[in-house]
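Full entry
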Amino acid sequence: MDFERSLELLWRDRGEARQPTRGRKPKLTLGQVIATAVALADGAGEATVSMSRIAEELGVGTMTLYTYVPGKTELLDLMVDTVLAERGLPGPGDPRPDGWREQVRLYAERTLAVFRAHPWLRSTSMVRPVLGPGLMAGQEYLIAAVSDIGLAPRKAAAAANSIEIYVQANATLFAETVQVEQQTGQSTDAWWGQRSVFWEKYFDVERHPAMTRIWETGGYDAETCEAADETFTFGLERMLDGIEALIPH
């Protein structure tokens, strides 16, 4: 893969991206190709996206697509960054929520929403991320939220990275839940309901006294989705409490 070609496409608004084949007026735009690929992935998963399938949806020959994007690898980069840009996070100088904690909550809320809307994102590597404007806008926003609260630069960077990792991990889990429910046609609560025999026949209360105590006092009363949201919010708020404790007063 020519990673510079991928970067050129990702940052095409800078005016350096190569244009499609010369001569006749292009039948499509790169944006149309990306949008079609995203729609296919949303409907049936990223693995089902192929250049031939996209071409069929757009009513063109497969080879036509290669005048817009070199191959599927580069196309996936474009898909990922396009949906990350859907977060629409405020940029430098744009109005944003008052207070750094509210700004972080906005980042978390919009990131979770994007992963739930596009569950195939869970297969995206954040170890070797797509270095496009959608990703960088999110990182710039998050760094800006914590960079002026009184932390030393390395601690501010660590705080932003920790938040990003926590949100990403939970967003991936939520996306997997959506994807599994789509693939099986069965809700997670229904899946657990079918396994009630485990609790009735196999669960040993004497070997799991802490779990039993929490169960009997209502700790597990919430439905799966509600419990996941509560868990995420609890963890995020405790992380923000820890960061706030480091701020000089």
Remarks:
- The chain has a mean pLDDT of 90.
